[in-house]
Each structure stands twice: as C-alpha cells, then as structure tokens.
Design a protein that fits this description.
The structure is a homodimer. By secondary structure, chain A is an alpha/beta fold. In chain A, about 45% of the residues lie in helices and about 15% in strands. In chain A, helix 1 crosses helix 7, helix 2 packs across helix 3 and helix 3 packs parallel to helix 4.
Chain lengths: ~170, ~170
C-alpha cells in the first residue's frame, strides 16, 4: 500500500516543524518508515537559487511534492513541513498523492509575531525581508483542511494526539 | 537495511536508460521495491531552468543524488540513469549512499554517433546544441567502476546478466 503524505501548512512560527518532528518520533517509535521533509532543508538541496516570488515558491513546493510522492509510492509515511502559502499549488501537489492529509497549523499573526523564534518577523516588519509570508506576501489558508490545529490554543501534545487520532481513523494507525 | 543505489553513467546513446529499464523489470519481477530515476525526467521535475554548464549539471546531479539517497534510506533499490559527466561530482554523490554500484555504460563515441537514436549528435556536430557531452563538453569516464559494460560488444541481455551477477555477489540478489 502506498504511504501517506501529511502536509503541514501555515505561517512561519505557527509550529509546523515542531509538530511534524513530534509526530515523526511517535510514528517511528511504532515502527513505521517515516521521512520528514522540511521546507527550509529541502530548499537547500533542491531549490538553491530560487527566491520567494510566487513562481519560485511554487517550483519549490512542486519539487517537494515530487519527492514526497516518490517516497510515498514505496510505502513511506512522508511528513512535509512547508509554509506553502498558495492554495492552488498545495491542491495541485496533494492531488498527486493517493493518500494524504492536509494539516493547517494555525496561529494568529499576532501570536507568531510575538513568538518570533527566529527574529524573522521583526526583520520583515522593518522591511528587511521582502516577500515575507503574512507580512509582505500572502498566505492563503486551506478552506477544508483534514486537520485544523490552533497552536495558540492547544499544546503540542494535544495537537499530536489529534493527528494520531486522525491517522487512526483513516486506518493508517500509529 | 538501506537500499542500493545503482548509478548508470555514460554518453548519451550509450544505453544507460535501456539497461536501467531492463534491470528495473527484472528486479520488480523478483519482488523488490525499485525506482528508476531518469536524468532527463528528473531534470524536468527538479531542475527546470538549469542549463548545461558545469555548475548547472552538478546541481542537477546533486539533486538526483539527494533523492536517490532518500529513497535508498527506506530500502528502495534506486537505479539512476544520467550522463553525469564529471568524475568528482559522481564520487561526491555516491559517497553519500551506504550501498552503491557505479556502472559505466560504455560505447565508443563513433558508435553512439552512428546510433544517434534521438538525432542529437547530428545536431551537436552541426553546432546546434552547445555543451553537448562528447562533442562540445567533456565526459570523464569512471576510473574504477563497479561494473564496466561495453554496449557495442555485449547484448542488452548480456549486460543485464552481468548486472544481476554483480548484485548477487554483493548479496543484493534479484
């Protein structure tokens, strides 16, 4: 059976990588073949030289999708953590996976600006980073995600439990 | 156990894709998880916009290597068919795979020019394709490939048998 693609989308700082990493650990502990494709890391390997225009972002997302689907085809559960701000591009890429979950990692802009773990929002607000999602570039939230997690209201552990329950319901039990 | 990366290198028209496809069929028939990454197809998905300068070729080969190693990590036998003309770049990419075979698909330039299945050599010789390996761009043959196949002397079937024997010797039996 082909593997599942679990696609985490959301603003920078919303908690995508944190949740994907926590889920990865739980799935690995249960013996599954799991691969986490982190948008930033994959960009370094597959999309050096691309910027943050819509066209370049879309190319990067399509490349991540291509790799995710290749792995899933061989039974690997693939967790993708990528801002992936454009609704149509996410839909296009996820349409190629035979089994997938779109996870909206959602925190209000005010919350992620306050967290600002990497100091990027402060820079973006000072105009030092052009094309910064949520500040100077759009983010199009999913209209009907498979899982919608408000990370300002739920703990990491609660979010992971919600994800595991959903995987379980869809018979891809952890 | 991690999967094997079988890397087919050689001139355009030497028979890389033909052999990789034939080997893929044999390995699939024996129940293995196999993925064939064809240089031209992968270039379309991962390296649109890149050209054929040394830098761009190297980027493309590194991307193919990144994907091949990801798949191999999950137990997939990965067959890569790519001209991959630069020795150092092939070595660099193959060094990242824990189990690998470098296969030199070798036919004299005169032979591949005569075959010219895609009509590319004729064009390149007329100067219509810049950076064409073997005509206007270098090809650095492996110095000690794991398998060296002279496709002007051996049949496809003989080459595939040689490959299967080598896989077998290395206990990755088909």
């Amino acid at each position: 059976m082909s593997g599942l693609v679990v696609w985490f989308t959301g603003l920078s700082g919303a908690g995508k990588s944190t949740l994907a990493t926590a889920l990865e650990a739980r799935l690995k502990a249960s013996g599954q073949q799991v691969e986490l494709l982190d948008g930033d890391a994959v960009r370094e390997h597959l999309s050096k030289g691309l910027g943050f225009s819509r066209e370049d972002r879309d190319s990067n997302i399509r490349r991540i999708g291509f790799v995710a689907n290749l792995l899933a085809k061989h039974g690997v559960t693939v967790l993708v953590s990528a801002i992936s701000p454009y609704r149509d591009t996410r839909s296009e890429v996820l349409a190629q996976a035979s089994r997938k979950l779109e996870v909206f990692v959602d925190a209000p802009l005010e919350t992620v600006k306050e967290r600002d773990v990497k100091g990027l929002y402060a820079k973006a607000l000072r105009g030092e980073i052009p094309h910064f999602t949520g500040v100077s570039d759009p983010y199009e939230p999913p209209l009907s995600p498979d899982v919608h997690l408000r990370t300002d209201l739920l703990s990491i552990e609660e979010c992971v439990e919600r994800l595991l329950e959903t995987l379980d319901e869809r018979e891809v039990a952890a």
